[in-house]
Amino acid sequence: MHLGASPAAGQQGINTSVAKGRKMRYQEFLKILGVVVVLGLLVSACATPAPPSPPEEAPTPTPPEEAPTPPPPEENVVIYAMVTSFPDIDPSISFSDDSVVVSNAYETLVWYNPPGSEEVLSPGLATSWESNEDATEWTFYLREGVKFHDGTDFNAEAVKYSIDRTMEMEMGASYIWWTVEEVEVVDEYTVRFTLSYAAPLDLIASSGYGAWMMSPTCTEAHDSDWLNEGHDCGSGPYMIESRERGQRLIMTRFDDYWGGWQEGQFHKVVFDIVEEPTVRQQMIEAGEADVTYLLARENYEGLDAREDVTVYINPSFQNLLGLLNHKKAPLDDKLVRQAISYAFPYDDLITDVMMGVAVQAHGPVPTEMWGSSEDLFQYSYDLDKARELLGQAGYPDGGFDLLMTHATGDLDEAQVGELWKAELAKLGINLEVRAMSWEPQWDLAISDPMQAQDIFVMYWWPDYVSPYSFLFNMFHCEDEILFNDGYTCDEEFDELIDRADGLSGSDRAEAERLFIEAEQMLIDNADAVFFYDVMNEHVLRSDIKGYADNPAYPHVVFFHKLSR
Amino acid sequence: MRRWIYLARRLGLAALVLLSVSVITFFISRVVPSNPAAKWVGPHPTKEQIAAASIKLGLDKPLYAQYFMYMGDLSRGDFGVSVRSHQPIIKDLKTYLPATLELVVVGTIMAVVIGIPLGVFSGAKKNSLLDHLSRLLAIAGVSMPTFWMGLLLQLFFFGKLGILPLGSRVDNAISIYHPVQQITGFYLIDTLVTGNLPAFRNSLVHIILPAFTLGTYAIGLTIRMTRSTMIEVLEEGYITAARAAGIPERTVLFRLALKNAIIPTLTVVALSFVYSVTGAILVEVIFSWPGLGRYVTEAILGVDFPVIMAVTLVVTVLYVFVNLFMDLLQAFLDPRVSLG
Fold first, then answer.
1. Are A379 and A341 a contacting pair, CB within 8 Å?
2. Which residue spans within A97-212 are E strands per DSSP?
3. Sign of CA dihedral A295, A297, A302, A308
4. What is the pLDDT of residue A41?
5. Residue B153 pLDDT more than 60?
6. pLDDT recorded at residue A19
7. Do A63 and B151 touch (CB under 8 A)?
8. Would an 8 Å CB–CB cutoff place B70 in contact with chain A?
9. Cα separation values, A470 from A302, A484, B196, Å
10. Which residues of A touch B294 (CB under 8 A)?
11. Pairing state of beta strands A77-82 and A291-293?
12. DSSP string covering A348-370, please?
């Protein structure tokens, strides 16, 4: 008992003093914590000052507190699982994957038709158009009865305003309009363009970047930030309803759309951002997404075998090239360039790596685009021929190093390098394959050609659909290097493509002939290695009707044309 | 008084750390080969467009002037503009930071609620079946790669059982019919405050898998840490005395032993909390979670330096303050730790 009582009493004493000390520490701790919290709040208050009138993200209506209404049963919603986010949905700036959204909210004067169509172009907001003989003056006759989403009428003033705004902002693909000297409003529904040099303005007007028509009243009243918060000023079939940054964007149908609405068309379009391909695949299999793209290639066969899913593989207007450094030995020698072109295993790449989701290129312009031809010469894998050419060039046993750079994270480009490296090694050539972020890679190319990579692997796709985009940007002489990263310069070639571009508005057949002639020059000279034309893959739920891919608008799904 | 001096010194140091981080990241971002003006314009910029953009972005000014401009803007709460999206970064941060914090907070709560009791029992019943199982769980949690864990959970709970969603913060239907009104950016709080119960239930269901995936590492760590410190503490004399005095085992474990054993665990939990803010990248990608990790990944791949700088600064602030908070908390919990 005694033993038990004494420690208990002692413990009580200790407990009291400990409790006191703890209370003091507790109070002091609270004080200090209070100061830290206040300081933290001050810092955060300084860091995020309340804007004068807080324009909250898309003022979403607070849902009713009781008994939230279930979705109306007749609402037909389609979900597009997107690979990336939409950097900028301002129609004057958009020049990226954001075009999937922009193309459903805005319209162009003219649309470019998918390959295989009878006509290259079809009417959009312009019903017809014409040019003078040398394509320096263009007149567009506009569609009547078109309204923008804010109720403003579409007319010649709106066309002038839209193009002026895009040009003044000097962003994205605004340069496609550089030839335009004056936009003249002839009457309510006629607009005339005077150009400083001949250009295919009909093709330019069909561009998926920088050629969108927008409501002047709406765009004047709001700025680019407002548009990017999840609004639009277009006339397209769908209006942007809301945008949750990094997560999704929702569009809703524009009831007054001039094209009208029919049974089965979608009421709402949801763009979900899902980077992970396995997750996108699970979504499409489970019916949680209706459209997606860029899944693991090896899974397409299995997916297409399912009844509820359809895989579409179509040509694209994007290709992969290896630009060869013409300033530095040994690639300054045409024979060596030809030799390494013969040393690439084109068929193996397309069958084993790309799983058939690519075709060997016929030169620098994608084969399915106008201004290209299947008759153009293709290099084939032929190591004997390569060896012979190297011998003629004075390198019978190879014996030199080459540096190839490609974009970090692009597995296809990396595979191109690895396959090529193995083949070149058989010729005694050591290829170093270096993955670099785009910026340092480009920086290396545009600084000093003598220090630059020997082979610059890159994709190209056009702003408006013309071979000139490929030929001018990557092969025309450049005083200050931008994208001619093989440093080619041939005045005869330049003259040919400039002439072809001038004619592509007035005499497209002749322009096409000249472009093909110029492409043959590049192929003969082996100015680049033309690896492959990319194919577009899209995976859709089988109950979606009316889908057709249009490579002029990459990965764009025109939802007004679809139904379920 | 010593504590106040200590606090002032720590805050001064924090300011110095922030200043240094801003200098380092700013100058590194300008030395690394990149062309922000070209990036600003778009994928196929022309010379004229790049020149115009350089002036607009102030890139034609000397480096020190650019730094002072940046710091001037920063002091007004302006983190600058993303060169990729052309949007004010502060707007992005207001969405992405709470999204990540919500995920990390729920993950950490899971770590505490699951990890600590398991660690306590495991330590108390050394070498029992429960101990072996929880050690196995701890090792699995610490060593299993996050993305693998995430994909497995998705396959099982979405693919096989169909009871939990694949990803994102709420379903499409909720975004359309019961949109979440952003107040704090924490969906679980915002939906409750606005009485948007369908959205609350939905966001709760959506956060389970990503938070658990993110929390597995912390759960494993917590179990191991609690277990080892518990074993140590349970051998102390005062525990033997308490047991001899007949104090119930539950009280001995959770009131007497855990109080001493929890201190190192709390430090570990706090540090893993901050680490998770940036470590959430993979979880955010797999679960399409619009958070800071995914945001900064896109920025790094796109060499979007204003965004990289902003996120670096925000994370530094978090680190500094969580560290300070933990030091204060330790001093409060453990009288042997003195400040100053």
1. yes
2. 110-112, 121-123, 126-131, 137-142, 180-187, 190-195
3. positive
4. 42
5. yes
6. 45
7. no
8. no
9. 36, 10, 53
10. 246, 275
11. parallel
12. HIIIIISTTSEEE-SSSS-TTST
Q: Residues A538, A293: contact at Cβ < 8 Å?
A: yes
The answer to whether A323 touches A560, Cβ cutoff 8 Å, is: no
| Residue A486, C-beta contacts closer than 8 angstroms, at least 6 positions apart | A323, A324, A325, A326, A456, A474, A475, A527, A528
Q: What residues contact residue B261 under an 8 Å CB cut-off, 6+ apart?
A: B120, B123, B226, B229, B230, B232, B233
Residue A424: CB partners within 8 Å, gap ≥ 6? A340, A343, A398, A402, A430, A431
Inter-chain CB proximity A62 and B198 less than 8 Å: no
pLDDT at residue A5 in the model: 36
Range name among A7-16, A383-392, B12-21, B80-89 with the lowest pLDDT average: A7-16
Q: What is the dihedral of CA B174, B175, B179, B180, to 10 degrees?
A: 90
Amino acid occupying residue A167: M
Q: Do A175 and B3 touch (CB under 8 A)?
A: no
| Interface subset of B 200-239, CB within 8 angstroms of A | none
3-class DSSP state of A488: coil
B195 touches chain A (CB under 8 A): yes
User: Where is A291: in which H helix or E strand?
Assistant: strand A291-293
Angstrom distance (rounded) from CA A425 to CA A437 = 26
Q: How many CB atoms lie within 10 A of CB B4?
A: 14
Confidence of residue B340 (pLDDT cuts 50, 70, 90): low
Eight-class DSSP state of A60: P
Please name the member of A247, A275, A473 whose beta carbon is closest to the beta carbon of B285. Answer: A275
- Name the residue in chain A with its Cα closest to that of B244: A4
Q: Where does chain B have alpha helices with state H?
A: 2-31, 36-41, 47-56, 63-75, 89-110, 116-124, 129-143, 146-154, 172-177, 187-193, 197-234, 237-244, 249-251, 258-279, 281-286, 292-301, 305-333
Inter-chain residue contact A33 with B328, CB threshold 8 Å: yes
Tell me how close the Cα of B64 comes to any Cα of chain A, in angstroms.
22
Distance CA B212, CA A34 (A): 32
- Residue-by-residue DSSP string for A178-197: TTEEEEEEEETTEEEEEESS
* Structure token pair of residue B125: 């019943």
Distance from CA of A274 to the nearest CA of B (A): 5
pTM for the whole structure: 0.86
Backbone angles phi, psi at B81, to 5 degrees: -125, 140
Q: Are A471 and A518 in contact (CB under 8 A)?
A: yes
Cα–Cα dist A67/B46, whole Å: 56
Question: What's the angle, vertex CA A49, arms to CA A44 and CA A54, rounded to 5?
Answer: 125
Q: State residue A35's pLDDT score.
A: 52
Sequence-distant (≥ 6) Cβ neighbours of residue A482 within 8 angstroms? A446, A473, B45, B46, B47
Q: Does B192 touch chain A (CB under 8 A)?
A: no
- pLDDT of A54 reads 35
Q: Which residue of A has its CA nearest to B313?
A: A47
Name every chain B residue with its beta carbon within 8 A of the beta carbon of A275. Answer: 285, 288, 294
Which residues in B lie closer than 8 A to residue A93 (C-beta atoms)?
A: 42, 86
Are B285 and A442 within 8 A, CB to CB? no
Q: What is the pLDDT of residues B242-290, one digit of tens each?
A: 889 888 888 888 888 888 888 888 888 888 887 787 678 889 988 999 9
Q: What is the ipTM of this complex?
A: 0.88
Which one of A24, A170, A226, A408 would you mutate to disrupt binding with B, by most B Cβ within 10 Å of its Cβ?
A170
Task: Read off the tokens for A314.
Answer: 């179509």
Residues of chain A with pLDDT under 70: 1-74
- The residue among A534, A83, A523, A524 whose CA lies nearest residue A349 is A534
pLDDT of residue A43: 43
Of B195, B298, B301, the CB nearest to A65: B195
Please name the residue ranges forming H helices in A193-276: 201-204, 216-221, 224-228
